[in-house]
Write a structure and sequence with these properties.
This protein is α+β, with helices and mostly antiparallel strands. The protein has helices spanning 36-50, 81-87, 92-107, 117-126, 133-145, 182-195, 205-226, 233-245, 254-261; strands spanning 11-12, 16-20, 25-30, 59-65, 68-74, 151-153, 162-165, 168-171, 178-180. Strand 1 and strand 2 (16-20) form a beta hairpin.
Amino acid sequence: MSVILAQDPIAQGRTADIFPWTEGKVVKLFRDGRPITCAMRESRLVRLVSSAGLHVANVGGVVKVNGRFGLVYEYHEGRSLLHSMASRPWSVASGALLFADMHLGLHSCVVADLPSQRRRLEERISQSDLVPKPLRDKLLSRLRDLPDGDRLCHGDFHPDNILLDPGGPTIVDWADATRGNPWADVAQTTVLFDVSPVPAGAPRPWLIDMFRWFFQRLYRYRYASIHPADAASLVTWRPIVAAARLADCPPAEREGLLAVVRELEA
């Protein structure tokens, strides 16, 4: 389908752009020649997550626009949590607590038909050519010793993936959703805080860089206060999820991710 889209996307992610579509809808178009299976897989994951009762954007059909595959979603008016805090810096503390409670909430869900988190981590670590093989082998061995889980995990949980919709906070971008150990999901989030640059188009990027340390500390404190018995496992999970992300990450994150992977040797 040849369609004239708005000149600029209304949001940009690591693998896709979001454009206005028909009334009340947006379209998420994948970049880099990603195949139709990416859109079909994400559509299935969103429907599974929605069945757990979480507030997510409803997904429509798979489309192909100007050579790019994508998904139609319902439009949500709210700004992301990240944008909201950048505009209202006095709300960072309450934003961090909301963020932690939303992560705790989704980790309370069990969605049996989701892909295995452990299997996905194993596959991505095996593909992480930037990690020396002896270290990869050590990471895979450590992963096998860690407890598995059956909880819903987002896989890319960060403040720009929470929309503060008038109907309630909405979690978006479920492309990496799995069934697994919540602490691996928390580790993924802390690694993103450590290595990811401020998203394109975010207001006041200098301010976001200033408050990200405080936000992460408060988020981790809140989450660990609810599950104190397992909090120590966060340190073990961090190198594993960082190595997995190295299989397909933006160049700007590589150095930081390698530094986290080397935490295994510390």
